[in-house]
Write a structure and sequence with these properties.
Elements: E1 5-10, E2 14-20, E3 38-42, H1 45-55, E4 60-66, H2 70-82, E5 85-90, E6 96-102, E7 108-112, H3 125-133, E8 135-140, H4 150-155, E9 159-163, H5 172-180, E10 183-187, H6 194-204, E11 209-213, E12 219-223, E13 226-230, H7 245-258, H8 263-277, H9 290-297
Parallel strand pairs: 1-4, 1-8, 2-6, 4-5, 8-9, 9-10, 10-11
Antiparallel strand pairs: 2-3, 6-7, 11-12, 12-13
Length: about 300
Amino acid sequence: MSRDTDVLVLGGAGVDTIVYVPELPLPYADSYMIDSGIRPRAGQTGDFVTLGLSALGLRTHHVDFLGEDPEGDLVRALHRDKGLALTAIPQPAGTKRAVNLVGPDGRRLSLYDSSRSHPDDRFPPDVLRPLAESSRHAHVSITQPCAQALPVLRAAGVSISTDLHNWDGENAYQEEFALAADVVFLSTAALADPERTMRRIVERGRAEVVVATAGAEGAYLLADDELTHVPAVTPPAPVVDSNGAGDAFAAAFLYGRLTGEPPRRCAVYGAVAGAYACTVPSTETDAIGRAELLARAAQGSLAP
């Protein structure tokens, strides 16, 4: 079967309600007046990765569970308007949703509604298998029930990436993803010893590359048994929101990997895309294009 899709993205479709707050952590008060408004916006981790990959010219397909509800309609509209292929599996519990509190410095606190899935949810094999067999690569969100899809993806012969987000290095749920993927992304936020965790992923799993993002401190790349630091990139405009920066990093890194670039160059692409994402308000959905990514990565200060 021909591999007509560059990246199949599993999971991570949903809606965020964005609330800009005066500070984080938010001090207790009976109420706050939010002058900027409180707005729902389609776009969670899988949506953002799909958008980022597509903006860079890769052929993408997103598959996840969606409810027949207003939130599901927002997600479907996002994919339709951006020209993103979507396979929506009916979810009686409704579409995934979250509330993001965003501070003035762009940091955020996310509150996830975990009631929108069930332990026995599964991607239908007759849906997932042909999608996997027609794809070069699969990026797997850690949302339920993506863990159960990992054996199907491996049997289909696709390479796999995942983003563990703020994994602490111990939680067994995220560890399953960490050990099954060829490329692993995670944040340093909850790690006492990032290098130790990164090396454990490689030693115990099948990862060829592990990337730990550290916000304004840049990122750490473990490839070919060598740990290197990738500096952060100066954003092209004022930072307004860090939401989606990690997803943008992952998308640009995978773009580099799938076009044959070495790991360090892939990480530079990720840093550029992540910095761009920090300039996009949470109420909008946008991603850096290929021409801008390549131009910014080619600047002398960004060259590997």
